């Protein structure tokens, strides 16, 4: 029978051939060079576009040595700028986290007319140019603005002062916490919370002990993005603040000022600090991202 | 603080409280500012708005912005897709590091980006002088704008395409191969149609961002009206020269474009799912 | 025979250790077999046995570490997948979601730059062949699982492949559709007469439609033969246990006749191997019959248990103190009207005989080592 020789071969006990003993196969590797070319091209493009400028900043900030670098950071203007940035970032992050969580809960767990509209509105700040954002707050809170009038009467300065900058920063970094928490909430579903409620947990307890832990990675990612955005905001605060040295300048505005004044060391130094902090935030972002999903949450 | 809505029942009080807070917050922070500027813009009549818009500088800035964004989007769609492909399908040393670095443009403040590009390609740098000698102007010229936009929007297309590629069933590609197709054909007729919605999503987000980009462009391109002045820079210029009125028209155009793109994005998501089995 | 459609010689493949802690393992271990032109052969084995890998190696979708593949007697071992002229049907259809049924089927022809008229004719013909005329403009999302698989088949057949390979083609479908489609596949094959190999873990499916079966386990060929061969003469422990249970009867031979206890066994075709000695009989449950009439070819026995399994009956009998397992299809079972505790007369239709001078224990031990019995 035609299968006989095959049968006996298949049944005889065989010892496992060692990998080393195998002769190398020259299976036709079609397109290996094509792959290498593509990989090379992509890496070169990425290196040129992204890595090169970043490397340059590091070099230039420290090119004259560490002392001038540090000195430039110690000027009163610089110190004030960094302090202001820190302050505004903290406020922005806190407010956006608080309201962002509420928004996320409402959007993920409730059903009502106009929900889709609300959802779209949350995304809006991402689409608005920072300059226009700043402009909007000037219109609103300026001397003749709808709300500006009242604050004017009360003697409170919003535009060309820190409050305006805070508002503008909150606006531009508004969507992040919401956008990152909503998908996580929707994935988790309501069952765990419902179970907790049936077991007698109060709403607060349910939130604290069930909801919050289940969204912690999405929340962390959203907070990190919010921080990065608030830190780096430029256009909106530039317009809203009037960029008054030592009064309404954040770190980013400070860099702009230094550059315009040809104080390059000052500009580079502050840039390096901001870049370093951003880089740190980036690392945190990537670490947290692994727990959230595979990059899906950043863009919808 | 929260409570799940039980189907069919009226929302409970805490839920309503949350809902009101949410709506109030958005109303105050998002709707109000937009309403304010829109009212201001059309407050003196639409014809006035139109007049502001057709000023040569305003018009130029808008056209330049759209053109630069378009060029950037085309470039980034190609390079972004290629990058996503390489990240998902290939294996090479340092891959996870590069993967993390792709998000760098999102983390770095735009002004720092602008500064980096100016030092790198500016008149004092080696690259800058080299390029100028060959007749290529980067800083204070249009290529610089495109470069800055390319940098700040690089991650959009990559991150939009990556997950789709990762989840994609290789079956279809293998089927095409067994039917005799070579690699390019497999890519263009089988892979590309599947990832096209993702590419367009990333491209739309990149375009939207590019329209409004300020920090990096203002450094790289300066503020030369009728030459390298993009719309956001124009707006800034007008505000600084106490001519906010003049900036309103351009602002409205930018705002409207953003809305339209957001809408298109939403439609695109659904279009992308039409063939899902 | 009219030549070999597929020849597989000594194919091995090892998968390297994976990043996720997966160990390196030998997926295919020196596998060889041949498929005659125009035959439909099943690669049968449990999941993880390497059968899909073997199929993919034939298709060119995986590279073997060693060995050769011949299609239509041409050496294609080093030829890339898109040049092998094979048709491949995937378990999850792999239809081009964004193309219509028509475009899917036409794809292979377009790649070959067939002239439009020829293309149109061929696609139409295939649509009729798979009974999907009128569905040209539908998209895969609008079709049922069975319909999708038929489109996949048509698509694979369109560019006139020399060989058709199917990887668990009905694995993703529910049982009823599965059965319909597998017999439909057989009829299709008879019409088209293309050399075909299909991979399955479903023993019934393989037995029902294949000309020959190659039983695979842990990357090795266990046995090759017609369904009948394999069923009646399993050659290894694995094959025997994979394809069903068996009853073991310890008998003794005397003067050319075989006795189970005091009773003489009359089984058609049964020949005593020697004049005297101990023999062991292996009898498949399907080959056990009962009736209410005594006879000299029957043994008395009692019904101890009756189990209904949806499409068949399993009955436990006791004959001379030994439990005998019987399997019959539903119709037979209903016709007989059996009940617990009844006295019946047991007859065997067929058996395998094993003998040894050393006695039953030795024979049992040997059979156990060969894997025929537990």
Detailed description of the structure:
The complex is a heterotrimer of chains A (300), B (277) and C (374). Chain A is mostly helical and 300 residues long. Helices cover 73% and strands 0% of the residues of chain A. Chain A contains 15 helices and no strands. The longest helix of chain A is centred in the N-terminal third of the chain and has 34 residues, at 76-109. Mean pLDDT of chain A is 81; it is low at 1-28 and 294-300. By secondary structure, chain B is an all-alpha fold. In chain B, 77% of the residues lie in helices and 0% in strands. Chain B is built from 13 helices and no strands. The mean pLDDT of chain B is 87. With 374 residues, chain C is α+β, with helices and mostly antiparallel strands. Chain C has helices at 51-59, 101-111, 116-129, 145-157, 175-192, 203-209, 227-232, 237-243, 330-336, 360-370, and strands spanning 4-15, 25-36, 40-44, 66-71, 74-75, 86-89, 163-167, 195-200, 212-217, 220-225, 247-254, 257-260, 263-264, 276-283, 288-291, 299-308, 312-319, 322-329, 343-348, 352-356. The model of chain C has no long low-confidence stretch (mean pLDDT 86). The chains are: A mainly alpha (300), B mainly alpha (277), C alpha+beta (374). Chains in contact: A-B, A-C, B-C.
């Amino acid at each position: 029978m035609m299968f006989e020789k095959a049968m006996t071969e298949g049944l005889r006990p065989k010892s496992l051939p060692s990998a080393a003993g195998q002769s190398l196969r020259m299976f036709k590797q079609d397109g290996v060079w094509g792959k290498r070319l593509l990989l090379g091209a992509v890496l070169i493009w990425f290196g040129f576009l992204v890595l090169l400028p970043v490397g340059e900043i590091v070099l230039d900030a420290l090119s004259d040595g560490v002392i001038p670098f540090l000195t430039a950071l110690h000027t009163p203007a610089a110190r004030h700028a960094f302090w202001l940035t820190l302050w505004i970032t903290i406020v922005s992050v806190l407010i956006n986290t608080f309201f962002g969580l509420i928004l996320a809960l409402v959007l993920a767990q409730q059903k009502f007319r106009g929900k889709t509209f609300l959802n779209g509105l949350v995304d809006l700040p991402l689409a608005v140019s920072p300059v226009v954002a700043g402009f909007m707050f000037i219109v609103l809170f300026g001397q003749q603005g709808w709300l500006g009038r009242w604050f004017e009467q009360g003697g409170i300065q919003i535009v060309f002062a820190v409050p305006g900058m805070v508002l503008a920063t909150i606006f531009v970094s508004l969507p992040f916490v919401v956008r990152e928490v909503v998908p996580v909430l929707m994935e988790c579903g309501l069952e765990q919370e419902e179970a907790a409620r049936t077991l007698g947990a109060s709403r607060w307890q349910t939130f604290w002990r069930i909801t919050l832990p289940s969204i912690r990675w999405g929340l962390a990612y959203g907070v990190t993005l919010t921080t990065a955005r608030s830190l780096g905001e430029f256009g909106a605060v530039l317009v809203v603040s009037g960029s008054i040295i030592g009064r309404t300048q954040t770190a980013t505005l400070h860099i702009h000022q230094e550059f315009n004044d040809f104080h390059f060391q000052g500009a580079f130094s502050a840039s390096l600090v901001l870049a370093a902090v951003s880089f740190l935030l980036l690392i945190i972002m990537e670490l947290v991202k692994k727990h959230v999903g595979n990059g899906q949450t950043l863009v919808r | 603080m929260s409570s799940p809505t039980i189907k069919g029942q009226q929302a409970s009080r805490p839920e309503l409280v949350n809902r009101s807070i949410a709506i109030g917050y958005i109303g105050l922070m998002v709707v109000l500012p937009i309403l304010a500027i829109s009212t201001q813009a059309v407050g003196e009549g639409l014809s006035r708005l139109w007049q502001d818009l057709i000023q040569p500088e305003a018009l130029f800035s808008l056209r330049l912005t759209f053109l630069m964004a378009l060029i950037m989007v085309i470039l980034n769609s190609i390079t972004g897709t290629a990058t996503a492909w390489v990240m998902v399908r290939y294996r090479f040393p340092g891959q996870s590091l590069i993967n993390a670095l792709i998000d760098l443009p999102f983390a770095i403040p735009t002004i720092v980006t602008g500064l980096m590009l100016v030092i790198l390609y500016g008149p004092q740098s080696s690259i800058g002088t080299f390029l100028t000698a060959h007749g290529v102007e980067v800083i204070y010229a249009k290529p610089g704008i495109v470069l800055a936009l390319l940098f700040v929007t690089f991650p959009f297309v990559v991150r939009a395409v990556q997950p789709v590629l990762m989840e994609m069933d290789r079956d279809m590609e293998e089927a095409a191969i067994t039917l005799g197709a070579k690699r390019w054909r497999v890519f263009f007729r089988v892979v590309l149609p599947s990832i096209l919605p993702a590419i367009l999503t990333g491209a739309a987000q990149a375009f939207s961002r590019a329209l409004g980009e300020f920090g990096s462009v203002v450094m790289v391109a300066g503020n030369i009206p009728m030459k390298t002045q993009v719309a956001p820079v124009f707006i800034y210029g007008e505000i600084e020269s106490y001519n906010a009125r003049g900036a309103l028209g351009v602002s409205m155009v930018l705002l409207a474009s953003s809305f339209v793109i957001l809408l298109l994005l939403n439609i695109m998501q659904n279009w992308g799912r039409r063939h899902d089995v | 025979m009219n030549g070999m459609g597929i020849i597989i010689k000594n194919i091995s493949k090892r998968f390297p250790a994976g990043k996720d802690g997966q160990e390196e393992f030998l997926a295919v271990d020196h596998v060889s077999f041949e498929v005659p032109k125009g035959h439909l052969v099943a690669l049968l084995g449990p999941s993880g046995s390497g059968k899909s890998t073997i199929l993919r190696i034939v298709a060119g979708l995986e590279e073997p570490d060693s060995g050769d593949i011949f299609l239509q007697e041409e050496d294609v071992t080093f030829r890339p997948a898109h040049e092998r002229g094979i048709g491949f049907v995937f378990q999850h259809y792999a239809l081009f979601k964004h193309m219509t049924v028509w475009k899917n089927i036409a794809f292979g022809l377009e790649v070959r730059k067939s002239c439009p008229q020829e293309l149109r004719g061929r696609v139409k013909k295939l649509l009729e062949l798979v009974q999907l005329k009128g569905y040209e403009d539908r998209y895969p999302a609008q079709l049922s699982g069975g319909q999708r698989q038929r489109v996949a088949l048509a698509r694979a057949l369109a560019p006139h492949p020399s060989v058709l390979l199917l990887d668990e083609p009905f694995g993703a479908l529910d049982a009823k559709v599965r059965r319909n489609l597998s017999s439909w596949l057989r009829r299709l094959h008879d019409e088209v007469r293309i050399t075909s190999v299909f991979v399955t873990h479903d023993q019934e499916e393989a037995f029902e439609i294949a000309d020959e079966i190659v039983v695979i386990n842990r990357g090795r060929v266990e046995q090759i033969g017609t369904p009948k061969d394999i069923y009646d003469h399993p050659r290894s422990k694995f094959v025997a246990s994979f394809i069903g249970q068996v009853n073991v009867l310890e008998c003794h031979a005397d003067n050319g006749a075989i006795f189970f206890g005091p009773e003489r066994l009359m089984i058609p075709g049964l020949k005593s191997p020697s004049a005297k000695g101990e023999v062991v009989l292996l009898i498949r449950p399907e080959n056990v019959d009962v009736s209410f009439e005594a006879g000299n070819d029957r043994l008395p026995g009692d019904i101890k248990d009756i189990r209904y399994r949806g499409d068949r009956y399993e009955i436990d009998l006791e004959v001379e103190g030994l439990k005998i397992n019987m399997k019959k299809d539903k119709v037979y079972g209903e016709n007989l009207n059996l009940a617990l505790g009844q006295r019946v007369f047991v007859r065997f239709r067929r058996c395998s005989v094993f003998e040894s001078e050393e006695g039953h224990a030795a024979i049992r031990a040997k059979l156990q080592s060969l894997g025929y019995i537990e």
